[in-house]
Amino acid sequence: MPGPVEPPQGYTLPFSPGGRAALVDHPPWHFASDVIQVVLRVDAGEVARLLPPPLEPGPEPDRITVRVTEVISVSDGDPDLAYRQPEATQYGEAIITVPCRYGQETGVYLPYIWTDHDWSLLRGWLNGWPKKIGQIRMT
């Protein structure tokens, strides 16, 4: 007579015995990156259109930043993955940031993030980031 069947496991789909098929591993996640950042002066009216209410343009309403990053990330659940399977821990992102204000508080809003791996996309969505798939190259 067979023993008990282990239920599928994982932080995200697809679930599997032991949880190894999950697209995204359990948090917390740790990150390191190389970044190129460019500050641009653009039409303030176009920048304001990127901000959802109740956010308002920040102190420099004609400024945005564009960042291109090469990222390595691992979770506490599998910190050695970067050595065993580096392609499962390395990805690129391109990020647009818009300085903004909410009342008297200043900050930045990220209207767009592109990433080049599906697991980075899903992990971003789990955290509320506006990620889309794209081709990212830093040269």
UniProtKB/TrEMBL annotation:
Organism annotation: mine drainage metagenome
GO function term, MF aspect, one: lyase activity
InterPro entries, alphabetized: Acetoacetate_decarboxylase, ADC_dom_sf
SUPFAM superfamilies referenced in this protein's UniProt entry, alphabetically: Acetoacetate decarboxylase-like (SSF160104)
Protein name (database record): Acetoacetate decarboxylase
